[in-house]
Amino acid sequence: MLGMGRMGAALAGRLLAGGHEVLVWNRSPGKATDVVKAGAVEAGSLAEAVKAAEVVLTCLSNDAAVRHVALGDGGVRGSIADGVPYIECSTVSPQLTDELAGMFDHFAAVPVLGGPAAIESGQATYLVGTGPQTLELIEPALASLGGAVRYYEMAGLASTAKLTVNLMLLSGVAALAESFTVGRSGGLHDDQLRELLGEAVAPGLKNRFEALLGAPAAGWWTTVLGAKDAGLAIDVAEGAGIHLQVAPAVRQAYLRAAEQGHGDEDIAAVRYLYRS
Ligand SMILES: NC(=O)c1ccc[n+]([C@@H]2O[C@H](COP(=O)([O-])OP(=O)(O)OC[C@H]3O[C@@H](n4cnc5c(N)ncnc54)[C@H](OP(=O)(O)O)[C@@H]3O)[C@@H](O)[C@H]2O)c1
After folding, report:
1. If you measure from the C-alpha of residue 5 to the centroid of ligand 1, how many angstroms do you get, rounded to a whole number?
2. pTM for the full predicted model
3. Atom of ligand 1 minimally distant from the CA of 89
């Protein structure tokens, strides 16, 4: 498991709980302590981790990180053994995952719907984009991750599916922050807003109600990652010659929240843009 960020550590935890031997690596030292305590072994280098692996997984920040780890010097491509599948779990562009699918014998794009807590509790959804042969090879790993699986026949489609959902959630959270602001500006109480909007929004938005109304948010999907995801979604539509209307404003909102010092906080920190 390459990448010991929030998601990589949670994925490694599931694999350990599933009885696998898990070798981990992270660019910066010191991030694997908890996973090692839970039974993983930290590799001395990226190449060492990949050479020993029967399945390679990455979960990293963005396209640049995945490109570097997958294709850079000492990266996955140079060290992976013949026939070993490579599962890429980050939220990245469909172009990148399709490119990687063409470069590795057995590549699967497996972006994740749900944050670290959903992975840990076995309630995440894995959007699996690969061919049937690779699917068979990665099934033991997928079974240990638990949760639900949605299958797509190409890597890029799984990445597109992930960006499709994320844009809806990012837009919804930003719109909800504005709806709360409008309600409060006109004199409605928070309890009235909870009741009123509780009936109108999807469960994926409802779980950010309290954070948007002012409770501290546990940071899991950061504003920096949210802005990145909105940008990738915009690129997908642009690639089809379509100029989105709302998504650029949504992206700007998360960028601004990050620039105002909330880059490491959950996307609910978009609410700080509306402080009077
Ligand atoms: N957080 C969520 O709720 C959530 C949910 C679904 C999907 N995702 C997606 O999952 C991915 C990981 O998210 P996360 O929350 O785990 O992020 P994170 O905690 O910020 O971790 C990012 C990881 O990427 C590594 N990294 C960044 N640039 C690198 C580079 N150039 N070379 C090597 N490693 C590099 C980091 O290493 P260092 O420690 O050295 O910086 C770290 O291990 C992202 O694509 C995100 O969009 C996140």
Report:
1. 5
2. 0.96
3. 10
